[in-house]
Amino acid sequence: MIRVLIADDQALLRGSFRLLVDLTPDFTTVAEAGTGAEAVALTGQHRPDVVLMDVRMPEMDGIEATRRICADPATAGTRVIILTTFDLDEYVYGALRAGASGFLLKDTPPADLLAGIRVVAAGEGLLAPTVTRRLIDEFARRPEPARPLPRRLDGVTEREREVLALIARGLSNSELAAHLSLSLATVKTHVGRLLTKLAVRDRAQLVIVAYETGLVGPGGSGSTDLG
């Protein structure tokens, strides 16, 4: 059973999301929050698997609420999906840095929303294509990082760096396996080692590391040749 907390200041939207979640056999809504502060408190109380988090809420915005949830050891196992609209895309980078595991647009079809919750609950990252483009644009405005690569990647092998670069391009495990001519099990092993070595929660955080260290850059630039 995937336990979901819904945080949005609009009661109508909360009700719509709750109905969708509760009508799905292996999903259940454990709580609703109308403010960021309520989201933090209720997450601590109910320990949901996934929080659907709006960005603009009273008292505390969704990014700060996400930061507090992810930083608290008691709730660090909870995954946060940011619910965004096109005019809120400027929050993408900050929310990822705060620990969000993914993003979904509020007009996402119901089946895709449920699939996204499953993906994040399983420990994967989730970035809608439009959100991914916005993230890349954010890094495009930043100065090129200094070379050589930061010491954070010192313990990462060349093959793992190659996998990390491809993850930052948005490739799934099956696509990684095909691109690198590896078995799916081997790819999963590489991804697991990257998560451990870089001390991050999921693939969304791996994307941040890849860009921040300069392993990859906007438009395909970076230190790894992807062929």
From TrEMBL:
<keyword id="KW-0805">Transcription regulation</keyword>
<protein>
    <submittedName>
        <fullName>DNA-binding response regulator</fullName>
    </submittedName>
</protein>
<dbReference type="GO" id="GO:0003677">
    <property type="term" value="F:DNA binding"/>
</dbReference>
<feature type="domain" description="HTH luxR-type">
    <location>
        <begin position="149"/>
        <end position="214"/>
    </location>
</feature>
<dbReference type="InterPro" id="IPR011006">
    <property type="entry name" value="CheY-like_superfamily"/>
</dbReference>
<dbReference type="GO" id="GO:0006355">
    <property type="term" value="P:regulation of DNA-templated transcription"/>
</dbReference>
<dbReference type="Pfam" id="PF00072">
    <property type="entry name" value="Response_reg"/>
</dbReference>
<dbReference type="InterPro" id="IPR058245">
    <property type="entry name" value="NreC/VraR/RcsB-like_REC"/>
</dbReference>
<dbReference type="Pfam" id="PF00196">
    <property type="entry name" value="GerE"/>
</dbReference>
<feature type="modified residue" description="4-aspartylphosphate">
    <location>
        <position position="54"/>
    </location>
</feature>
<keyword id="KW-0238">DNA-binding</keyword>
<dbReference type="InterPro" id="IPR016032">
    <property type="entry name" value="Sig_transdc_resp-reg_C-effctor"/>
</dbReference>
<keyword id="KW-0597">Phosphoprotein</keyword>
<feature type="domain" description="Response regulatory">
    <location>
        <begin position="3"/>
        <end position="121"/>
    </location>
</feature>
<keyword id="KW-0804">Transcription</keyword>
<dbReference type="InterPro" id="IPR001789">
    <property type="entry name" value="Sig_transdc_resp-reg_receiver"/>
</dbReference>
<dbReference type="InterPro" id="IPR039420">
    <property type="entry name" value="WalR-like"/>
</dbReference>
<dbReference type="InterPro" id="IPR000792">
    <property type="entry name" value="Tscrpt_reg_LuxR_C"/>
</dbReference>
<dbReference type="GO" id="GO:0000160">
    <property type="term" value="P:phosphorelay signal transduction system"/>
</dbReference>
